[in-house]
Design brief:
This protein has 489 residues and is an all-alpha fold. The chain contains 19 helices and no strands. α1 (39-59) crosses α7 (164-206). It is globular and about 55 Å long. The relative contact order is 0.13.
Length: 489
Amino acid sequence: MFYWLRCSNSPDSTVDRPQRDMPKPGDRSGGAGGPDGGWGWVLVAAMFISTSLVFGLMRSLGIFFVEFVHVFDESAQAISWISSIGLAAQQFFSPLGAALCNAYNTRLVVMVGGLLSGLGLILASQATCLVHLYLTMGVISGFGWALVFTPMVATVMANFTRWRALALGLGFSSIGLSSFAFNPLFQLLVETYAWRGALLILGALSLNIVACGALIRPECQPKARAKEDSGSGSPSRSNVLQRAASHLELPLLCERPYLTYTLAVTLFNFGYFVPYFHLVAHSRQAGFSEYQAAFVMSAAGATDILGRVASGWFSDLGHFRLVHLLTLWTVSAGAFIMLLPVSSLSGSYAALVAISLLYGFGSGALTSLVFAVVPMIMGVERVMGGLGLLQLIESSAGLLGTPLSGWLRDVTGNYVASFLVAGSFLLLGSLTLATLPHYCSCTDPPPPPPPQRRSSQGSHQDPFPPTRTTERRDGRRGEVQAAGRQREF
């Protein structure tokens, strides 16, 4: 039987905990028994603030778009690369952030990420050319965001078992709330202090992520350091590469469930962000005023918050499997994206607002479950590296989805084809989810066993652990011997 030690962020995490048995089949813990409360809710609050200062800020940087076009006298396409580079850096460097957390300390990594995210915006306030903004707001801040998002999400997931989806929903709800509140705030800052002063204030605001990272309790000895301590002699090149692959969780790329789920999420990403960039422009093209178009996006953002929290709460009730609920919300979001341009063809503003409300709820509901399903695919002990690899692979879809939508608009002259294709990508991802192993089962399959870590000393580990076959054979032998003793008696 396999046993594993779990290092939690609870107050007594500095002492050794007793070994835990493997979870029972159907347990949603994904291989971990989180405390489901206590300091975990403090970490949810830290995640709430940090994600608002990452994705909420990222979504609201469009306020500076007009200012940059006017100041640097560059094309809109050149200015658009600032936010694209930031998003790409956040997703591309996520595996590195996960590997650093596995090798060292999550608290330190998140605090450094908060420092870099604020530093990039502060340096951007002194920019004299567009390349300067690419390097500061794009690369430096994007790299800092990569060190913050994945470790915070993985830390919250490791501290919750039953209420994991609700905890994630509450943490992610800040994205919709901050997107709703940051746009007028940033506009006020630009009008009051100009764009340089506004960026300086946003940089100082982003430094609050450092305080969020400090709330992560001291962890147990990282697995990388444990391996190095147990090893003897100088590390060879093969050992270094093996440790690096272990920190990045590269063996997941050879497992079919993980690859299937990654493909499905990548297809989601092709169409998920299209309404955020083009819904306002489509509303204006449909003949609605500026304020009416802006209200459409605000309405979707409001129901986005409700969808995240309601989806997490309902999922944790345990009436349905998480992967089935994820499929339901993904199909709903994809269908409503396809209905967005259709609802405005007749010129009915009420119909457009109604579909936008439904779309916002569906898109928010699926976001909570996308991450909640991950521990069931790979187990909690590998969720840090698995999330990093997932974001690295899906980053290509996030970058290509919006340009594809814009190209379809240039070819057809409207956004109808853009939204139809975007919604179809979500429906295709739902079909990909249906190919997961045990998808048609009404109960969750047993969680994957934790990976066996090689010990160089081997003094405390049985090199030949008994398998189930051996146990059955030994049990059968005992029954035969007992029956023989009864006959002799």
